[in-house]
């Protein structure tokens, strides 16, 4: 019982094993004689079935073995091979294992007979054996395995024995190898008979069907058909066709449970297999296509793809070798594509290269390609364009991988492609040459057509050139391009000629009132004069450009700086600064090398020049007075090194100056006219030689001393002549002259002469050292004995070096003090003393600024005799120069021959000489081709004349300064920037360097605003700071308070205190101080201001005249009081002063003033010169030709009253009728006469004003535009939409500023060019899509245009209705509460105003964030912007008292922008805005809390003096 259970348990534990079959593959075998030289394919069939992967398939299997291999474990001394086993799954899913045995016959490689085996039966009997046994027999893989079994997989035949279940009979149906198919079929027949005896299943495998012989196959099929149940399977081991089918069919025959095997014909099976291979190949090739780098290797790619199914399938079907070949082909293709691409790049680059190296058609037109190659090799740029490789061709070198090397391989040029490119290049040059010739011919055709005017459209001209040969040849694009170029040329030329014309008419522009924009009358006058000029008419089709040029020129008149100069880099100021910087630096450097140790000199090197032994005699005399070459002078011992030269050598300098001997001075001794002339020639030769060889530039500046030797005959008649001529030569050479001392001396040279000469040398050396190493403190300008201004026109056709050479070539020239970039100092002997002359070289436009401000002793006015504009500018400048100041006119041309050969030059030189004659000025000419006029002597006579008149000039200047400080003219508050204010920079630098004055006056409630004539009603309050009301000063304020006046409402040059003020003569100042100090206290006679009802309420502008109530006994002059019994008038700024005769005598002023009644006051040169006067008068008559002079002037006076105000010294501008007197100078008229004329005029004005005072006053928005606009000045609501809530102009300006100017120093504070601002708005009026960047305007101009936009709005951006609420909210003490209250008020803004206000404040906040660079804090921005945003009414006293509060409100909005508009947190500011308390009731105290808003008082020249005693004029 237990035994049965155990059996059951064992049966359960046994796992079912798959069925196993052993198939024996048999066929023709034996020696080569039996089977031929190749087998029938048994081994290949077994190999393909057992190991079907392509890499494991071996097409060669040999049966000829050595004895060792035959006895190895694989063959194991048997004539059969064990191929291993294959596990197959049937369609039913049942697996079976098939063991494959190949029956063969191994041949000994020595005897070529079958090896002796344990089984000695013949092959037919052995092959039919059904039982096989071979202990430890290993599985066969390939022939290489034999003898190297350990290197291959080792698998033993199971249990060393197998039972054969079926036979696979192989018949080779190919052509065979030395084998007859019939013999094979006979062998197979015998074998089949033997096999059939085993009763096992048999299938015939027709092998090598890929090389099938059809009738062989048919015979096999016939053979099989004669046998019972014998199946033929057509196979091909090479292509793996039906290999598995034949084994599977045999298994099906052996397994009776399976159905009948399905045999597939060879062709069908082959197609199926090939389709499988093709599909796998396509997939693999696509996989390979992903590789784009031809440097990739198979090893890298295969490792990357080995797990990809497409890769694995292809490897299994075709094998690694084919895969690698496919990959290699792909890589080669990639490489060839790369080479092709590089070749195309080189060929495409070749035309450009040929254009570079072979651009000259004349040079290559007839050259062959080979000749052209040789020519290219000689070009210097050849190596930059081509590379010559050591190995060729280039596509087989590593050059193909150098993608960054764009040079073309030179061997590529030997191809036909390159030669074709060269031929095309030559043809292109030929056609291009023809095209250029035709274009130039067409250009000349256009130049011949006279009626083509600037700005004329091409369409109007095209019809006139239709038949032109050149026009027909070139394309339409070329013709338009040529015409555009022609238009640019004629337009540019026309603009240059127009600009030159404006300069020629300088007198027309330099009488403009710089305190206001030109009136419409003045502009009409300008147009009337210029319209007669052909150069004006030439720009008729370009009227906007012409108007822009005119406005730009007028803007330059208002802003005459080197930055705005219309000549650009040819501005005289720039050129002078550059030349002086270079020349004076070299001069000082060389001189410092020469005299670096001259301060404490112990040794003196002297060169002694003489003739006929005089030099040696003087040297001997000096040595006689010396001890061991040491000379005692003034208590100090000097070592002397003397070099006497009887100069006969043609090379004096080689004797004079060597590396071992550098002289400090030269003694030139003479005792006759002959020796004196000899000395003069030698000195000239020394300087010329030094200048030519440039060994040392300062050789020519060696100090010389002329010494007159004593005559042995003391009664010599020649001594006075020698003395006189020696002194003359010394003056010319600018050197000392040592005369023979009085008395009788036995020797030729006296000890006094020698000591005097040595002192002169030491003094000169010390002077040179002082020039190089000045005292480090700033020298007072009064150290200069004379101050000369040289003026020259910008853009004149001569070099600056020419007009400066008389100074720079002088050895006594040195640099001026630090900061004076356009000045130099000249030490020159004038008369008997050495004088120090400061020469300041300026352009005419810069000189205008100093003409009236500064003390100038003389003017050197330079003009080009080739340029009418140069003379025009000179006339305009000279007309306004006081006739007490000496003038030197200098005409510049090439040579003297120009005067005779050129009528225009002759006319201008004659005019200059004529003007000089009329005004008693000096006149000279400088010739660029002459060397003589480069000497300082050219101006010696002029300097002497200036020196003679120095005292008179300074007295006149002081008199004018005193008159300005004590007299109030009609222009008290409308001072010109070129007037008497020192706030105007001595050297104008920039129009944008300082802040424009604020448009309000920080004064108290007691101030009465002054009205202006109604004629200026259209020039109302400009919130930009350009025009604004001018307020009088309180009558009871102190001196320092009176100085806080509103600066003049001008933009050309903002008020800046000068750091470099020219002081008056110290002696003159002491005299004035002494006079002032005698009477320090005087009482002020106060006159009450006019009551409000007497004021003209029709305008916002103040004019001092007629403002003060006129009490009996007072003249019509502003702040005027009776002076003495003669009724002379003293006008005092800011206060009323009553001075009696005694007081005048005591304070020293009345004497000087009273002298003016008996003496001639300074006039202007235009009244001394008929040429200047008639020129100015001709402009006036040209515009008033329909009336007489008197009528015309009266009309002009009436029209311009209140707009174009002039000075009493200008007959073109003054209301005084001076034309009746011809050229008489109105300055000669007595004060009383002038006062009477003024009284009549002003009384008439008062009456007119009183008639108009009843008119109701309305506060209208200001306007600064003189043109009609459909945008600017419109209500804000009309300029925005719901989609675009911000006006387009505001957006463009803000965008431009934030893109280009956030870091601009002084943005919104520094005024921009008024003309540019107007142009921006005009251009925007015409085209809303303008690009501000393309207009090339400054950031400050755009900022000004933006502010002007808000200033022109009908209503301010912050409504008037909310001003009071903002003021009340700002008084809240608690900061948080105050800010929330302000936020609520802002929400009350109209939605349009709110959006724009938010946009502007956000922008200003961004600007303030850059305050470290632009210096514009929120405080500064609020000062500049609050009047623009709130539009204050400065005639409202209540408004004036809250100006600080309004400013602080805007500052708060800017600082707390995030809080007000973006729900941000409150920002803690360093200086939080404090609560603004209401103003005190006492109006006098109003000035103090508003001091931070005030500008510094404008300084006057006469105020730059030592501190005066308190109340020097008796004013409280």
Q: Could you explain how this protein is built, in words?
A:
- By secondary structure, the chain is an alpha/beta fold.
- The protein is built from 54 helices and 27 strands.
- The strands form 7 sheets. The chain has a 7-stranded mixed β-sheet, with helices on both faces. A 6-stranded mixed β-sheet has the order 3-4-1-8-9-10, sandwiched between helices. Strands 14-15-13-16-17-18 form a 6-stranded mixed β-sheet, sandwiched between helices.
- The longest helix has 38 residues, at 320-357.
- The protein starts with a helix and ends in a 54-residue tail after the last helix.
- The model is unreliable at 590-599, 771-782, 967-1159, 1185-1259 and 1471-1516 (pLDDT under 50).
Q: Which geometry do the CA atoms define?
A: elongated
Strand order of the largest sheet: 20-21-22-19-23-24-25
Largest sheet: 7 strands, mixed
Helix content: 40-55%
Radius of gyration: 57 Å
- The total count of helices amounts to 54
Helix/strand/pairing category: alpha/beta
Could you give the distance between the termini?
Answer: 154 Å
- Average pLDDT, all residues: 75
How many β-strand stretches?
A: 27
- Low-confidence regions: 590-599, 771-782, 967-1159, 1185-1259, 1471-1516
Q: In percent terms, what proportion of residues is strand? A: 5-15%
Describe the secondary structure blueprint for this structure.
Layout: H1 2-13, E1 20-27, H2 32-35, H3 42-50, E2 64-65, H4 67-71, E3 80-89, E4 95-103, E5 107-108, H5 123-127, E6 131-133, E7 161-163, E8 166-172, H6 181-196, E9 201-207, H7 214-225, E10 231-234, H8 243-254, H9 266-289, H10 298-305, H11 309-318, H12 320-357, H13 361-364, H14 369-377, H15 382-385, E11 386-387, E12 408-409, H16 416-448, H17 458-462, H18 469-473, H19 476-504, H20 506-509, H21 520-530, H22 534-537, H23 543-558, H24 572-595, E13 603-609, H25 614-624, E14 630-633, E15 636-645, H26 652-656, E16 665-670, H27 673-693, E17 704-708, H28 719-733, E18 737-738, H29 751-772, E19 786-792, H30 800-808, E20 813-815, E21 823-830, E22 833-843, H31 844-851, E23 858-864, H32 868-879, E24 887-893, H33 897-901, H34 903-918, E25 922-927, H35 940-948, H36 950-966, H37 1039-1042, H38 1066-1077, E26 1120-1122, E27 1129-1131, H39 1141-1147, H40 1150-1158, H41 1170-1183, H42 1189-1200, H43 1231-1252, H44 1288-1300, H45 1314-1326, H46 1339-1351, H47 1363-1370, H48 1375-1386, H49 1391-1409, H50 1411-1414, H51 1418-1430, H52 1437-1440, H53 1443-1455, ...
Parallel strand pairs: 1-4, 1-8, 2-5, 8-9, 9-10, 11-12, 13-15, 13-16, 16-17, 17-18, 19-22, 19-23, 23-24, 24-25
Antiparallel strand pairs: 3-4, 6-7, 14-15, 20-21, 21-22, 26-27
Helix pairs in contact: 9-11, 9-12, 11-12, 12-16, 16-19, 19-23, 19-32, 23-45, 24-29, 44-46, 45-46, 47-48, 47-53, 51-53
């Amino acid at each position: 019982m237990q035994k049965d259970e155990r059996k059951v348990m064992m049966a359960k534990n046994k796992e079912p094993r798959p069925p196993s079959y052993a198939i024996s593959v048999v066929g023709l075998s034996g020696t080569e004689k039996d089977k031929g030289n190749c087998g029938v394919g048994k081994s290949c069939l077994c190999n393909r079935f057992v190991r079907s992967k392509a890499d494991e398939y071996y097409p060669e299997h040999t049966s000829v073995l050595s004895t060792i291999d035959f006895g190895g474990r694989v063959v194991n001394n048997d004539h059969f091979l064990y191929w291993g086993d294959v596990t197959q799954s049937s369609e039913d899913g049942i697996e079976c294992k098939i063991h494959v045995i190949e029956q063969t016959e191994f041949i000994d490689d020595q005897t070529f007979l079958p090896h002796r085996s344990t089984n000695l039966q013949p092959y037919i009997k052995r092959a039919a054996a059904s039982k096989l046994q071979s202990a430890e027999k290993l599985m066969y893989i390939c022939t290489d395995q034999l003898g190297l079994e350990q290197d291959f997989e080792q698998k033993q035949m199971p249990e060393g024995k197998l039972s054969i279940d079926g036979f696979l009979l192989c018949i080779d149906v190919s052509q065979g190898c030395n084998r007859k198919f019939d013999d094979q079929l006979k062998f197979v027949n015998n074998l089949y008979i033997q096999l059939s005896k085993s009763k096992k299943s048999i299938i015939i495998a027709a092998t090598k069907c890929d090389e099938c012989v059809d009738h062989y196959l048919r015979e096999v099929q016939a053979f099989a058909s004669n046998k019972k149940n014998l199946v033929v399977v057509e196979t091909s081991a090479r292509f793996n066709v039906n290999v598995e089918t034949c084994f599977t069919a045999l298994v099906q025959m052996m397994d009776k449970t399976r159905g009948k095997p399905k045999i597939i014909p060879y062709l069908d099976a082959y197609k199926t297999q090939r389709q499988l291979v093709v599909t796998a190949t396509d997939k693999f090739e696509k996989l390979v296509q992903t590789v784009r780098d031809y440097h990739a290797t198979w090893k890298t790619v295969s490792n990357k793809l080995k797990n990809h199914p497409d890769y694995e399938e292809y490897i299994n079907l075709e094998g690694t070798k084919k895969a690698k070949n496919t990959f290699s082909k792909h890589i080669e293709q990639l490489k060839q594509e790369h080479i092709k691409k590089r070749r195309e790049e080189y060929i495409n680059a070749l035309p450009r290269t040929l254009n570079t190296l072979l651009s000259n058609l004349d040079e290559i037109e007839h050259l062959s390609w080979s000749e052209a190659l040789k020519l290219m090799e000689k070009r210097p740029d050849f190596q930059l364009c081509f590379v010559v490789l050591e190995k060729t061709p280039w596509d087989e070198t590593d050059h193909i991988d150098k993608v960054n090397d764009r040079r073309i391989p030179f061997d590529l040029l030997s191809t036909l492609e390159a030669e074709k490119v060269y031929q095309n290049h030559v043809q292109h040059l030929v056609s291009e040459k023809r095209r250029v010739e035709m274009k130039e011919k067409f250009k000349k055709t256009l130049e011949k057509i006279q009626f083509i005017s600037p700005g004329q459209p091409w369409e109007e001209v095209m019809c006139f050139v239709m038949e032109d040969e050149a026009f027909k040849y070139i394309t339409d694009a070329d013709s338009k391009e040529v015409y555009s170029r022609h238009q640019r040329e004629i337009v540019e030329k026309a603009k240059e000629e127009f600009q030159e014309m404006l300069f020629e008419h300088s007198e027309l522009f330099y009488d403009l009132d710089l305190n206001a924009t030109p009136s419409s009358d003045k502009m009409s006058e300008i147009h009337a004069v210029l319209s007669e000029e052909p150069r004006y008419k030439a720009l008729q089709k370009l009227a906007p450009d012409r108007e822009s040029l005119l406005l730009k020129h007028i803007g330059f008149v208002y802003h005459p700086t080197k930055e705005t100069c219309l000549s650009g880099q040819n501005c005289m100021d720039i050129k002078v600064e550059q030349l002086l910087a270079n020349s004076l630096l070299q001069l000082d450097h060389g001189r410092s090398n020469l005299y670096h140790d001259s301060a404490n000199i112990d040794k003196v090197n002297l060169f002694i020049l003489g003739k006929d032994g005089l030099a040696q005699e003087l040297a001997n005399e000096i040595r006689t007075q010396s001890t061991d070459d040491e000379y005692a002078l003034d208590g100090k011992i000097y070592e002397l090194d003397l070099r006497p030269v009887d100069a006969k050598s043609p090379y004096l300098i080689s004797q004079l100056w060597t590396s071992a001997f550098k002289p400090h001075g030269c003694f030139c001794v003479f005792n006759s006219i002959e020796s004196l002339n000899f000395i003069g020639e030698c000195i000239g030769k020394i300087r010329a030689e030094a200048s030519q060889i440039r060994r040392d530039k300062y050789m020519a500046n060696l100090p010389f001393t002329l010494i007159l030797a004593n005559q042995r005959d003391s009664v010599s008649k020649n001594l006075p002549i020698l003395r006189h001529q020696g002194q003359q030569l010394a003056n010319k050479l600018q050197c000392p002259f040592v005369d023979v001392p009085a008395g009788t001396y036995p020797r030729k040279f006296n000890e006094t002469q020698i000591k005097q000469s040595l002192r002169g040398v030491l003094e000169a050396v010390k002077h040179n050292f002082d020039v190089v190493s000045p005292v480090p403190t700033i020298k007072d300008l009064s150290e200069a004995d004379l101050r000369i201004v040289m003026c020259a026109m910008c853009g004149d056709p001569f070099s600056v070096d020419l007009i400066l050479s008389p100074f720079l070539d002088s050895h006594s020239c040195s640099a001026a003090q630090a900061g004076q970039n356009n000045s130099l100092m000249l030490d020159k002997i004038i008369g008997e003393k050495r004088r120090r002359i400061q020469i300041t070289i300026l352009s005419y436009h810069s000189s205008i600024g100093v003409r009236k401000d500064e003390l100038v002793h003389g003017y050197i006015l330079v003009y080009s005799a080739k340029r009418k504009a140069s003379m025009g500018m000179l006339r305009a400048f000279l007309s306004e120069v006081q006739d007490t100041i000496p003038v030197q006119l200098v005409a510049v041309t090439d040579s003297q021959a120009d005067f005779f050969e050129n009528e225009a030059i002759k006319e201008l030189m004659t005019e200059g000489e004529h003007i000089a004659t009329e005004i008693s000025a000096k006149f000279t000419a400088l010739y660029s081709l002459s060397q003589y006029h480069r000497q300082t002597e050219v101006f010696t006579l002029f300097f002497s004349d200036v020196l003679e008149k120095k005292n008179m000039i300074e007295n006149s200047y002081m008199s004018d300064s005193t008159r300005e400080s004590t007299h109030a003219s009609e222009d008290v508050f409308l001072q010109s920037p070129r007037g008497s204010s020192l706030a105007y920079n001595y050297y104008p630098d920039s129009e944008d360097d300082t802040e424009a004055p604020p448009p309000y006056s920080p004064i108290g409630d007691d101030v009465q605003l002054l009205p202006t004539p109604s004629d200026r009603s259209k020039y109302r309050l400009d919130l930009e700071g350009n025009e604004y009301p001018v307020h009088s000063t309180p009558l009871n304020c102190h001196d320092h308070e009176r100085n806080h006046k509103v600066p003049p409402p001008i933009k050309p040059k903002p008020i800046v205190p000068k750091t470099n003020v020219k002081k008056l003569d110290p002696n003159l100042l002491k005299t004035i101080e002494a006079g002032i100090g005698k009477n320090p206290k005087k009482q002020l006679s106060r006159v009450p201001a006019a009551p409000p009802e007497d004021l003209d309420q029709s305008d916002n502008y103040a004019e001092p005249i007629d403002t003060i109530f006129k009490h009996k006994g007072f003249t019509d002059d502003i702040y005027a009081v009776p002076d003495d019994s003669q009724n002379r008038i003293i006008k005092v700024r800011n206060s009323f002063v009553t001075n009696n005769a005694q007081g005048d005598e005591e304070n020293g002023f009345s004497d000087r003033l009273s002298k003016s009644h008996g003496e001639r006051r300074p006039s202007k040169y235009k009244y001394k010169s008929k040429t200047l006067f008639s020129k100015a008068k001709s402009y006036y008559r040209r515009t008033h030709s329909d009336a007489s002079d008197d009528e015309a002037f009266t009309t002009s006076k009436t029209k311009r009253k209140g707009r174009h105000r002039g000075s009493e010294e200008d007959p073109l501008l003054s209301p005084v009728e001076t034309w009746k007197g011809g050229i008489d100078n109105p300055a000669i008229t007595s004060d009383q006469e002038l006062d009477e004329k003024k009284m009549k005029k002003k009384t008439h004005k008062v009456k007119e004003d009183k008639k108009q005072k009843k008119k109701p006053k309305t506060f209208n928005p200001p306007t600064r535009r003189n043109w009609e606009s459909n945008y600017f000045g419109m209500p804000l609501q009309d300029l925005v939409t719901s989609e675009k809530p911000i006006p387009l102009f505001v957006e463009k300006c803000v965008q431009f500023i934030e893109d280009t100017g956030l870091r601009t120093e002084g943005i919104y504070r520094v005024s921009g060019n008024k003309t540019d601002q107007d142009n921006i708005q005009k251009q925007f009026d015409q085209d809303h899509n303008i690009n501000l960047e393309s207009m090339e305007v400054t950031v400050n101009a755009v900022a000004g245009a933006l502010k002007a936009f808000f200033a022109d709005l009908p209503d301010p951006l912050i409504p008037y209705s909310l001003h009071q609420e903002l003021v009340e909210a700002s008084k809240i003490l608690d900061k948080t509460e105050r800010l929330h209250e302000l936020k609520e008020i802002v929400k009350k803004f109209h939605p349009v105003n709110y959006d724009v206000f938010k946009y502007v404040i956000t922008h200003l906040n961004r600007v303030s964030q850059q305050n470290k660079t632009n210096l514009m804090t929120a405080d500064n921005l609020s000062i500049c912007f609050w009047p623009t945003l709130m539009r204050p009414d400065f005639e409202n006293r209540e408004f004036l008292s809250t100006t600080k509060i309004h400013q602080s409100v805007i500052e708060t909005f800017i600082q707390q922008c995030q809080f007000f508009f973006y729900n941000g947190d409150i920002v803690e500011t360093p200086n939080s805005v404090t609560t603004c308390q209401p103003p005190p009731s006492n109006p006098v105290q109003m000035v103090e809390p508003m001091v931070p808003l005030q500008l510094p008082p404008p300084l006057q020249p006469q105020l730059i003096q030592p501190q005066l005693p308190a109340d020097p004029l008796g004013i409280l």
